[in-house]
Amino acid sequence: MNATQSLTARTGNLFHRYANPGRFLRLGARLQPWLTWPALLLSVTGLVWGLFFSPADWQQGDSVRIMYVHVPTAWLASSGYMALAVCSLLSLVWRHPLADLAAVEIGPVGASITAVCLATGSLWGKPMWGTWWVWDARLTSVLVLFFLYLGHIALIRAFDEPQRGYRAAAILGLAGAVDLPIIKFSVQWWNTLHQPDSITVTGAPTMSTSMLWPLAIVTLGFTLGFGAIVLARLRAAVMESRIRTALAANRGRQDTSTGNAA
Which range is the signal sequence, renumbered to this chain (predicted)? Predict the structure, then answer.
């Protein structure tokens, strides 16, 4: 076994530690409140601070307050699809049994967040650009992301045999990840109406701290909320899968006993 195969095997073993449904449910039950309650507290705090107490922008006025919903949802639209792509990789390479279920549950949440991102972007664009929509590179690439989410949701349910749907959707999930760098760098690669990113890894923020702090708080709250919703949906899916398996096994035993009695 070469070094690459050894690393793949060790990584697979690490991921499969929590493949056991019972172990995952116990871990999820402990983790759920640590995501849910901080998400609610931070989201409410950040939104109230940003919408009612942060200063208006000198140029955009009060319309800048849409930022406190639009920016976190834009971040989560891309981050959610990145999580979807990771689940697709785990499914295709390591055949992780929970990766497919996680992808099923991430899709609707990510699509909803992306829809909110597009809607708030249109609300912001109307007073700034004088129109609800332009075929700007950033806006168009996010719209493509929304359709990728919808395509993944439809494809994973399009087959009578679930495993075929999981494989097809996983391929789409990985292929669609090419849209993520386009979303990120579109304002640098093309001449667009969309403003450049105000927060970057390499440079200092271009907004005042009185706006940056509530934005950071609500973004963290939304991110924890996204995780809490997906985790709750995934726990429900795992429990539903266990119940179906138990019912199928019970029916099988009943059929066997009936056949023996006959």
Answer: none
Q: Are 49 and 209 in contact (CB under 8 A)?
A: no
**Residues 98-119 as b or e (16 or more Cβ within 10 Å = b):** bbbbbbbbbbbbbbbbbebbbe
- Which run of H or of E encompasses 219? helix 209-261
- Whole-number Å distance between alpha carbons of 81 and 148: 9
Residue 93 belongs to some domain of the structure: yes
Cβ neighbours, 10 Å, residue 170? 25
Q: DSSP code of 66?
A: G
For residue range 7-44, list pLDDT tens digits in order.
455 555 555 565 677 788 889 899 999 999 999 999 99
pLDDT tens string 99-138: 999 999 999 999 999 999 999 989 888 887 788 888 888 8
Radius of gyration of the chain (CA): 22
Give SS3 for 57. strand
Q: Give residue 227's domain range.
A: 66-192+209-248
Dihedral (CA of 143, 146, 150, 155) sign? positive
Q: Is residue 51 part of a domain?
A: no
CA atoms within 13 Å, Cβ hemisphere of 229:
18
Nearest one of 110, 118, 139 to 70, comparing CA atoms: 118
* pTM: predicted TM-score of the whole model, two decimal places: 0.84
